[in-house]
Write a structure and sequence with these properties.
A six-stranded mixed sheet has the order 1-2-3-4-5-6, with helices on one face. Strands 7-8-9-10-13-14 form a six-stranded mixed sheet. By secondary structure, the protein is an alpha/beta fold. It is globular, with a radius of gyration of 18 Å. β9 (183-187) and β10 (191-195) form a beta hairpin. It has helices spanning 2-28, 62-71, 89-92, 95-102, 113-117, 129-141, 217-229, 246-249; strands at residues 32-38, 41-47, 51-54, 81-83, 105-109, 154-156, 161-162, 170-174, 183-187, 191-195, 199-200, 208-209, 234-237, 243-244. The chain contains eight helices and 14 strands. The protein has a single domain (31-249), classed as Metallo-beta-lactamase, Chain A (4-Layer Sandwich).
């Protein structure tokens, strides 16, 4: 019991140190976050000293990508890196167009590199009744979805990948569960871009938290633990609106 209490105190102190570090970083720099709605997927532009894009959206979103980018007074060539949180069709559908327009490098986890380069369309099982119904509908429609094969420049391993070389203060973390190669971007300021590791109102009647599709629910929760312990304060999902990380903590 004493040992458990000691570990809890140490964990609390570490989290407080992380939160204090985040506050100090925010005072020193400005982080811009811009959501791009590219089809069925929320994609996110992160701008600090550099500019990166998280996820590539559904197919045929190149024109919309340019329109939204220019509304922010940004140019495609400003983007140095496109990170795919995972290799499902609605996350890499326009990655090839974005690469051609920007010249950026494309990064994805090693387990799902082939999905992107071979334009595969795997679907994880539903975790809820709605997920199972939607999954059945997607299986019927998938043959009609045309995906371009897209070359991967950076194959990420199952560990931490620093973003500082790209002008972003944060890291890419290995967070499996929704899929075997799912990854999340965690900024030093506490914003976590999790792809489909969590969802928010997808559809609107469903609350925040567990994704409606996942290969391994227990792995999802383990990945939640990881990002929370690393100081996540806000969750930015690919489906739905951002929400406080405490929502995930309360579901563990």
């Amino acid at each position: 019991m004493v040992k458990d209490l000691t570990q809890e105190i140490v964990s609390y102190r570490l989290r407080e140190e992380i939160l204090q570090k985040q506050e100090n970083i925010k005072k020193k720099m400005k982080t811009e976050i811009h959501q791009l709605s590219l089809g069925a997927c929320n994609c996110y532009l992160i701008k600090e000293d550099g500019l990166i894009l998280i996820d590539g959206g559904s197919p045929n979103q190149g024109k919309r990508f340019l329109k939204e980018l220019r509304s922010l007074s940004l140019e495609p060539k400003d983007i140095s890196l496109l990170i795919l949180t995972h290799g499902h069709w609605d996350h890499f559908g326009s990655a090839n167009e974005i690469k051609e327009l920007s010249g950026c490098k494309l990064a994805i986890n090693q387990h799902e590199k082939d999905w992107v380069e071979q334009a595969l369309k795997p679907l994880p099982p539903g975790t809820t009744l709605w997920g199972k119904i939607l999954g059945t509908m997607l299986k019927i429609s998938m043959p009609f979805v045309k995906l371009p094969k897209t070359s991967v420049d950076l194959v990420l391993e199952d560990n931490e990948f620093p973003l500082e070389p790209y002008g972003i203060r944060g890291n890419v973390l290995y967070t499996p569960g929704h899929s075997s190669g799912s990854m999340s971007v965690l900024l030093d300021t506490g914003e976590a871009f999790v792809g489909d590791l969590a969802m928010s109102g997808f559809p609107k009647l469903i609350g925040k938290g567990m994704p409606i599709f996942a290969e391994d629910v227990q792995a999802v929760k383990a990945s939640w633990h990881l990002i929370l312990n690393r100081g996540a304060r806000w969750i930015y999902p690919a489906h739905g609106s951002p929400f406080k990380a405490d929502v995930l903590k309360n579901q563990l």
